[in-house]
Write a structure and sequence with these properties.
The complex is a heterodimer of chains A (481) and B (98). By secondary structure, chain A is an alpha/beta fold. Chain A has helices spanning 9-17, 23-41, 49-64, 107-114, 157-164, 181-186, 221-231, 252-255, 273-288, 304-319, 334-337, 341-352, 355-368, 374-394, 420-424, 431-436, 468-479, and strands spanning 44-47, 76-80, 118-123, 170-175, 190-193, 213-218, 259-263, 292-296, 400-404, 440-444, 458-462. Helices cover 32% and strands 4% of the residues of chain B. Chain B has helices at residues 4-13, 23-37, 72-77; strands at residues 82-83, 86-87. Classes of the chains: A alpha/beta (481), B mainly alpha (98). At the A-B interface, helix 10, helix 12, helix 13, helix 14 and helix 15 of A face helix 1, helix 2 and helix 3 of B.
């Protein structure tokens, strides 16, 4: 049997329909790889062994009886542990939800199940998706498969590491500010943060609702596109979703001749040598493929981080109010000690939340409190408009925008954990797209090989609202040449 | 500048107990982040319309019908404590403090 752990979704689907292997065999190979390697990598928080094999058998039965299967049928996938799978633990990597078992499927999960994808398990993440390194998980460290002394990025670090290490063929991540693109870039894989409103968040544990999106993480742009098409779309359970028809997608030839903007604000000092050289390589490659580049301006981009770190904590402080020890199987032992409801709240929240959620809840409470609301929250909402206007203006002249994902490749464990501001600065190039609600596709500069001694670097392609097809076309043009 | 008293007030509003030894670190961390926000003051925004969401949708309508209700039994299983099928919580009011 060929090494299924290295296959893309596209290759896997061909092999499966040509009966080179069965779905059950393939899932078995992935479970074996997890067994052998995940002790070292730490990508998963829980594994659905039996359920995964049973789901794979259903695919094999369909093939045997001549029924058609979807393009992602049998594909062994990892899910970030903030997405609900009915009957399975969903912890958001927090002690607060250590024992919580989901009572329904997230819409994306239901869609994956309907298409007969195989869910291998839940991937590690920063607690409640807050962080850029996955070091804030309450349960374990996830290591970067390219260098075990370095972080995989975050907050979807488990998802990225699982795909990079061959422990999942693809994965789902969620993104509030760079939480898909950053780990994708650090782990040498592809990640898409979709347009706000493209994908349902029903069943995603909410962090900042005006920013959160779910997106695919995969080995190739082609795979990311296949996955995205399976779970994007309007959902009655998330009223922010938009009924957008993506159509068949753009042909690669249509991508030639497109204009890409390079925001001058993003190519200033402070980029590491690897990122600077990587971006230059990618620009030259695109030029050879017929892409024209133009310098553009995003004058308010530099305010994005401040704007984001006001709006996001404000929404966090409200969204996380529901974790009060009353509704979910929360922190064990709290019930017996609490004499009053207020005692229960204080004790549960005081014990259940780790350092980063605590900081953000307090910060959010501050920026929303009387006397400070106008100076911080109301101001940030206006700055958010200015940031979005910059993009609207830029897209009048270019078809897409290219930018670094982060100033440097993956950093070492402990390097930024004691200084929240240093960690927040990892988001410096990714915050803008979330605030503007527009899509970003992270693509590795080149094909990296595990053990090759190189740290992966990616670039991001940013598109206007609902222009994912254009990003996919550009990304595929890049990776196929 | 955030004071210890401010922090206690925020912790109370957040219904989140913070430990004695934690306060100094929190004040330092939050102070650093708030200092970063100062840069926003230089930006004139008087005539800017606030952007209060990620979507351009206006109102979203649906028929007033019950659909896809949550599995009640599964949801109840996640309650830390129940009595006669109801969610049980500690006393809201202290009965002794009359």
């Amino acid at each position: 049997m060929m090494n299924v752990n290295e296959l893309t979704i596209k290759e896997f689907h061909s092999g499966l329909t040509e009966k080179k292997f069965s779905a059950k065999e393939a899932t078995g190979e992935f479970l074996k790889a997890i067994d052998a390697k995940d002790g070292e990598i730490g990508a998963y928080l829980s594994i659905f062994g039996e359920e995964a094999l049973a789901a794979a058998s259903v695919v094999d039965e369909k093939i045997a009886s001549g029924d058609g299967i979807s393009e992602i049928a049998g594909v062994p996938m990892a899910l970030k542990d903030n997405m609900l799978v009915k009957g399975m633990k969903t912890t958001a990597a927090s002690k607060m939800l250590e024992n919580y078992v989901a009572s329904y499927d997230a819409t994306v999960v239901r869609k994956l199940k309907d298409a007969n994808a195989v869910l291998l398990g839940k991937a590690n993440m920063d607690e409640f998706a807050m962080g850029s390194s996955t070091e804030y998980s309450a349960f374990k460290k996830t290591k970067n498969p390219y260098d075990l002394s370095r972080v995989p990025g975050g907050s979807s670090g488990g998802s990225a590491a699982a795909v990079a290490a061959g422990l999942a063929m693809a994965a789902l991540g969620s993104d509030t500010s760079g939480s898909i693109c950053l780990p994708a870039s650090f782990c040498g894989i592809v990640g898409l943060r979709p347009t706000y409103g493209a994908v349902s968040r029903s069943g995603l544990i909410a962090m900042a609702s005006s920013l959160d999106q779910i997106g695919p993480m995969a080995k190739t742009v082609e795979d990311a596109e296949i996955l995205f098409r399976h779970f994007a779309g309007k959902d009655a359970l998330d009223s922010t979703t938009v009924n957008h028809v993506y159509g068949a997608g753009e042909h690669l030839d249509d991508a030639r001749g497109l204009k890409i903007g390079l925001p001058k604000e993003f190519f200033v000092s402070g980029l590491s040598r690897e990122v600077e050289e990587g971006l230059e390589f990618a620009v030259q490659k695109f030029k050879k493929l017929g892409i024209e580049f133009r310098e553009i301006e995003l004058p308010h981009a530099k305010y994005a981080l401040s704007c984001y770190y006001i709006i996001m904590p404000a929404e966090v402080s409200s969204n996380l109010a529901r974790f009060d020890g009353v509704r979910y199987q929360g922190v064990a032992g709290m019930r017996n000690e609490a004499k009053s409801l207020s005692d229960l709240y204080l004790a549960t929240r005081g014990t259940g939340f780790g350092p980063e959620p605590r900081r953000r809840i307090l910060l959010g409470t501050f920026v929303l409190s009387a006397g400070y609301y106008d100076a911080y929250y109301a101001k940030a909402q206006k700055v958010r408009r200015l940031i979005k206007n910059d993009f609207d203006e830029a897209f009048k002249n270019v078809d897409a925008i290219m930018a670094p994902v982060a100033p440097a490749p993956a950093f070492r464990f402990g390097e930024k954990i004691s200084d929240p501001m240093a960690m927040y600065l990892s988001d410096i190039f990714t915050t803008q797209t979330n605030l503007a609600g527009i899509p970003a596709l992270a693509v590795p500069i080149k094909q990296y090989s595990l053990g090759g001694g190189e740290l992966p670097v990616g670039f991001q392609l940013i598109g206007n609202r609902f222009e994912e097809n254009r990003l996919f076309a550009l990304g595929k043009l890049y990776e196929k040449n | 500048m955030l004071t210890k008293k401010d922090l206690e007030k925020l912790a109370d509003l957040s219904r989140m107990k913070i430990e004695e030894g934690e306060e100094e670190k929190l004040l330092h961390d939050l102070g650093g982040v708030l200092a970063h926000f100062e840069e926003l003051k230089e930006l004139p925004t008087d005539d800017v319309e606030p952007m209060n969401g990620g979507t351009s949708s206006l109102n979203v309508w649906r028929n007033d019908e019950t659909t896809g209700a949550l599995d009640g039994e599964a949801a109840k299983k996640e309650f830390p404590e129940t009595k006669d099928g109801y969610l049980k919580v500690p006393a809201v009011f202290d009965a002794s403090a009359d």
